[in-house]
């Protein structure tokens, strides 16, 4: 099944349902069962809070890595610990899912872990060798809207997003309560993370990939995400969401992750 056919069928269903569709449940036993979720910059593992119960309810084993957002090396180590943790308890292949800057992490050493069978990018960066999140953004004709809302600490080493930036360009389509929570829980992100280039050959060059493009993304932009997905030859869908697609449309994101996990069977 192609991603297009899958999405067309799913969009015909009610968004009010709170469990994955029967086709996904039936195919579950044939695909990858271990899923590691990697959050992005200015976030933490709670950004996956709506997706996790949907996956767990269907029997998937899920771990959300907690990145320190201090350096790519330390963020890689946190993701690798999450992979080791889940495979120690449930031996078997892993689907690695990254949002935003998390895409930099999953394409680096964690994605090259032999236990990782595939990569899912959710409104994420996917740099090649010698590229960084910032260098990819610099390919845009105009800076993304989020750039005007970045606040730097006194050392100029860490950055956060202003409350106005959360409501205007990071999570503009979420509720006021969710925006307030994201503002309070955001992880200060090192400038070094935004400048970091892959330390090894990007995993997306050798492993199957899937990509969710966020149509209303004002952090990376849908245009750049589409370019990255095309370069990776990723199976791709576009969702009508802001940057934090997994909080705005968790059921659609969970369904696509299941689609990816089931697609790995037989590889």
Ordered list of secondary-structure elements with their pairings:
Elements: H1 3-11, H2 22-28, E1 34-38, H3 51-56, E2 61-65, H4 72-89, E3 94-99, H5 102-106, E4 116-122, H6 133-137, E5 150-152, E6 158-161, H7 163-170, H8 176-185, E7 189-190, H9 191-195, E8 209-214, H10 222-232, E9 235-239, H11 245-248, H12 250-263
Parallel strand pairs: 1-2, 1-3, 3-4, 4-8, 8-9
Antiparallel strand pairs: 5-6, 6-7
Question: Would you give an account of this structure?
Answer:
The structure is a single chain. By secondary structure, the protein is an alpha/beta fold. The protein has one domain (3-263): 3-Layer(aba) Sandwich (Rossmann fold), CATH 3.40.50.1820. It has helices at residues 3-11, 22-28, 51-56, 72-89, 102-106, 133-137, 163-170, 176-185, 191-195, 222-232, 245-248, 250-263; strands at 34-38, 61-65, 94-99, 116-122, 150-152, 158-161, 189-190, 209-214, 235-239. The strands form two sheets. Strands 2-1-3-4-8-9 form a six-stranded parallel sheet, sandwiched between helices. Strands 5-6-7 form a three-stranded antiparallel sheet. It is globular, with a radius of gyration of 17 Å. The model is unreliable at 1-29 (pLDDT under 50).
């Amino acid at each position: 099944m192609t991603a297009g056919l899958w999405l067309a069928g799913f969009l015909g269903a009610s968004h009010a349902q709170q469990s994955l569709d029967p086709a996904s449940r039936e195919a579950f036993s044939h695909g990858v069962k271990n899923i590691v979720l990697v959050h992005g910059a200015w976030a933490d593992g709670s950004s996956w809070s709506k997706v996790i119960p949907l996956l767990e309810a269907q029997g998937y084993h899920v771990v959300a890595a907690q990145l320190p957002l201090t350096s790519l090396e330390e963020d890689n180590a946190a993701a690798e610990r999450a992979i080791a943790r889940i495979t120690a308890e449930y031996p078997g292949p892993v689907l690695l899912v990254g949002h935003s800057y998390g895409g930099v992490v999953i394409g680096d050493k964690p994605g090259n872990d032999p236990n990782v069978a595939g990569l899912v990018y959710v409104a994420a960066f996917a740099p090649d060798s010698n590229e960084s999140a910032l260098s990819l953004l610099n390919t845009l004709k105009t800076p993304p809207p989020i750039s005007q809302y970045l606040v730097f600490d006194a050392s100029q080493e860490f950055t956060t997003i202003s409350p106005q930036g959360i409501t205007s360009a990071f999570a503009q389509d979420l509720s006021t309560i969710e925006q307030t929570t994201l503002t309070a829980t955001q992880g200060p992100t090192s400038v070094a993370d935004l400048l970091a280039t892959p330390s090894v050959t990007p995993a997306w060059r050798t492993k199957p990939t899937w990509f969710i493009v966020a149509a209303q993304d004002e952090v990376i932009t849908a245009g750049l995400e589409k370019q990255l997905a095309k370069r990776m030859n990723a199976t791709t869908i576009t969702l009508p969401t802001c940057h934090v697609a997994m909080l705005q449309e968790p059921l659609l994101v969970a369904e696509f992750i299941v689609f990816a996990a089931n697609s790995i069977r037989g590889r």
